[in-house]
Design brief:
single chain, Rossmann fold, four-stranded parallel β-sheet, 10 strands, 48% helix, globular
């Protein structure tokens, strides 16, 4: 069974309810039909007729109470709720749905704000980030061609602690969704001191922070990509590394590298990219690329449903 099939089967094993706020996007509509036909999740396609005016007003007041000390006024909150995105996110907050997926017609910053403000950030971590599950065909690297790339969508220039939190949450997702042993590489242009520069400091600092926060996690860095995923190269560049060229989770040093990296692998290697999957929130939510297909919607919903199990 390949990774995509495994994810869909795992979602079917314990059906969860996922809300899709972008009710009028053809790809969302088609994806919802596939999900329901295959029994991957219970879907709420959040058409206008499903929005209860009294519930909407209650959500507006609750959201205002959450955000008024951050400078939000009631009129600006009402304007946000003209979009079904915030209603859907509040449904998840309240427990009327187990997660939500959007992004086909919203930018990542818009979706991330709705998710962070409505669902809240895990108090252990204090940051939200994102990752992709990358499924590379005909590849023996990673976990038989499957990787997690992070962060590719949220934090432009993470500091050491943020990098550490990204690594920990990406590893937790790997364990939960893919049922694999996470092996994490903190990527850079240097492998274990082969180069110098101020950009390396935060990566080296992140390794120390992870070892304090999650001492059992298999992680190493700083590492060049080839040392992270190619055992033969690792034996030369970092022979005593715990990762040993077998990394299945790649943590990029900044958003530029992460975003470019996943798109290169997607386009040049024909990889399937599932996500961005939002990390560090109190409840699961997933983004979609605005260039997504209906099958991308299905896969994101399946992963979001597993995370809610």
């Amino acid at each position: 069974m390949n990774t995509i099939e495994m994810i869909r089967q795992k979602a079917k094993s314990d059906l969860k309810t996922i809300v899709l706020p972008e009710y009028d996007d053809p790809r969302i509509i088609e994806g919802a039909k596939i999900i329901e036909k295959e029994g991957i999740a219970k879907i709420i396609l959040l058409t206008k007729d499903k929005i209860n005016p009294q519930t909407r007003e209650r959500y507006i007041q609750e959201f205002y109470q959450l955000r008024h000390d951050k400078g939000a006024d009631i009129d600006s909150v009402r304007k946000l709720f003209d979009d079904t995105l915030y209603y859907g996110a509040m449904m998840v907050r309240e427990g009327k749905a187990d997660g939500f997926v959007a992004g086909a017609s919203h930018t990542t910053p818009d979706l991330a704000r709705a998710a962070i403000h409505c669902l809240g950030v895990d108090g252990r971590l204090t940051i939200a980030s994102s990752c992709f599950i990358m499924v590379v065909p005909n590849s023996n690297y990673g976990e038989n061609g499957t990787f997690i790339f992070a962060d590719c969508g949220i934090i432009p220039d993470p500091n050491s602690r943020q990098l550490a939190c990204i690594a920990i949450t990406a590893a937790e997702l790997a364990n939960k969704v893919l049922t694999i042993t996470p092996r994490v590489a903190l990527l850079s242009y240097s492998t274990k001191g082969s180069a110098k520069g101020r950009y390396l400091d935060k990566v080296i600092g992140a390794l120390g922070t992870v070892k304090e926060m999650s001492p059992s996690l298999i992680i190493d860095g700083e590492m060049q990509l080839d040392a992270a995923i190619v055992p033969e190269v690792a034996r030369i560049k970092c022979p005593v590394s715990s990762v040993g060229g077998r990394a299945n989770i790649l943590i990029f040093p900044d958003l530029e590298a992460g975003n470019i990296g996943y798109k290169l692998v997607e386009r040049l290697a024909g990889a399937r990219a599932i996500g961005p999957l939002l990390l560090g929130l109190n409840k699961p939510a997933s983004d979609l690329s605005r260039g997504c297909s209906a099958q991308d919607v299905v896969d994101c919903v399946a992963v979001t449903a597993i995370r809610a199990q």
